[in-house]
Design goal:
CATH architecture of the largest domain: 3-Layer(aba) Sandwich
Number of domains: 2
Number of helices: 5
Distance between the termini: 19 Å
Radius of gyration: 18 Å
Strand content: 5-15%
Helix content: 25-40%
Length: 129
């Protein structure tokens, strides 16, 4: 009998930049309104990263929190997937930078660009690994 590989979520982590930009503030910058944005998107505010913060650095902060939550270390991870529509640069992949920041010596790492559906595609990719 062939056992199908399975995946599971062991820990969660997140990082949110400190700066908040509300719809009301956005109204002063562009021709829009809080009501227009909320009724069409549900968005009330967004987080703004500092200009010098990279996607890899934001990923490091979230990944370290997830690893701590799961009780795992860098050597326990065998694959790092990064879903982003806004990489730090074209090459090398953001995943490679994050791999180095986290000290993942045994893990493969790659980016994939699937925008809002990235979480679902990430689960499918991890299951097939």
């Amino acid at each position: 009998m062939n056992a199908r590989p399975y995946i599971r979520i062991l820990g969660l982590g997140r990082y949110l930049p400190d700066r908040v930009l509300t719809n009301r503030e956005l109204e002063t910058m562009v021709d829009t309104s809080d009501e227009w944005i909320r009724t069409r998107t549900g968005i009330r505010e967004r987080r703004i990263a500092p200009p010098d913060m990279t996607a890899a650095e934001m990923g490091r902060r979230a990944a370290e929190a997830a690893m701590a939550c799961a009780g795992v270390g860098p050597d326990d991870i065998d694959l790092l997937l990064v879903s982003t529509a806004t990489p730090d640069r074209l090459l090398p992949a953001t995943a490679c930078d994050l791999q180095a920041l986290l000290g993942l010596r045994r893990a493969g790492a790659y980016d994939f660009a699937t925008a809002c559906s990235g979480f679902l595609y990430g689960l499918a990719l991890a299951e097939g690994h």
